[in-house]
Every structure is written in C-alpha cells, then in structure tokens.
Write a structure and sequence with these properties.
With about 200 residues, this protein is α+β, with helices and mostly antiparallel strands. It is built from seven helices and ten strands. The protein has a domain of about 140 residues. This is DUF2262 domain-containing protein.
C-alpha cells in the first residue's frame, strides 16, 4: 500500500481541492492526535561502521533526536501538497471539504517524544468526524505515509535512526491531546494567522 500511496503523491493531487470561491468561515479549529513512537538505531562500531544488529530506542531517549526527526519529516513534504499536507489525499466525502490541513510532527510530553498529527479544520469536528480522522490517520501511519517514513534512515552522530509512528503491538493507541494530557482544553481557533486558545 505504501507504493500506491507514494505513486499518488508523485502523480499529483488526487484529493478534492477546497473551492476557494465557496463560502467558508475564516476561523480554523486545530485538533491534535497523539500516538506513541517506536524506534531502532544501527549504531557505529569502533571502526565507524554500522552494526549489523539494531537496538531499540525508547521514547524518552528519542527526545535527544527531536530536531533530526523533524528535519526528516520536513523532507517528506511534497511541493504539490502546499500548506494542506496529507489532507490533499483525503477521500472521505464528509471530511474533504471540512478539513484544511493534516500534518505529521513530533512533540515532547512528560519526558517522552510522541508522534502527532495536527489537523486544521473549518469549525470544530464532531465526535464522529474525529473518529473518522483517527481511522484515516492510523491507516496512513501503518500503510501509507508512516510506512514510508519508517524506512528512511535518519543520520545521527551515533549511527542511523529509524522511527515508526505505528506498531502492531497492544501498546499502540491514538488519542486526542485533551485525552492524553487529561485537560479540558478548548480547540485552538486561528484567525488571520493568530492562534487563540493555544496552550
């Protein structure tokens, strides 16, 4: 499925484009979905060659490589995606017109590095729509964008790092920022480039 997804990305935008002439509110609500990261490293040996066996890197250790991971995420962006990111590939009618952008990133919380999807939408998403976004993003994490990303080597001083946004273990989950952090937060509302209600 990764090949199909990246073929779509190379061929051009196949997702429905927002009609700039249609009437939509200028306010955008921001939803952030968090999921645990897993990672492995192929470390350099005494002769500066990569070891044949990998070692697991835990989320707390990943914090040291946040900058390198963010740089690799930026490299995954295609010019055709513009400001909308993965939202251009949405093929869910109820979400196509409501969601403006979907962008993967990472964030440190409570001493661990987490995978994050930032979703900008016109008006707040309903619970049903949030569940649809979760399902779509989990598919992207496992078989689309995330499958490609986990195969990219991230150069670090110790060797090569490989980061996965998804795993098949019982410890994987997707949760909203409010659900993870245990806070009743109002979704961010963006007006004219200024974000109101941000933490």
């Amino acid at each position: 499925m990764e090949a199909d997804f990246y073929e779509r990305r190379k061929e051009g935008l196949t997702g429905a484009e927002l009609d700039s002439s249609s009437e939509k509110t200028t306010e955008r609500s921001v939803l952030r979905l968090f999921s645990p990261l897993t990672a492995i490293i192929y470390a350099k040996d005494d002769w500066i060659e990569l070891e044949e066996c990998s070692e697991e890197v835990f989320p707390a250790e990943l914090c040291s490589y946040e900058t390198e991971i963010l740089e690799q995420i930026a490299k995954e962006c295609l010019p055709e995606e513009g400001d909308r990111g993965l939202a251009v590939y949405l093929d869910i009618p109820e979400l196509e017109e409501k969601i403006y952008s979907m962008k993967p990133t990472v964030e440190v919380w409570q001493g661990e590095l987490w995978g994050v999807l930032e979703v900008e939408s016109y008006n707040q998403l309903s619970e049903r729509e949030i569940e649809a976004v979760k399902e779509y993003w989990e598919g992207q994490e496992s078989d689309g964008w995330g499958e490609g990303f986990e195969q990219r080597e991230i150069k670090i001083s110790e060797g090569e790092l490989y980061v996965s946004f998804w795993n098949s273990g019982d410890e994987f989950f997707l949760v909203t920022e409010e659900g993870l952090k245990g806070e009743e937060q109002e979704p961010d509302i963006q007006k004219g480039g200024i974000v109101f209600g941000a933490l």
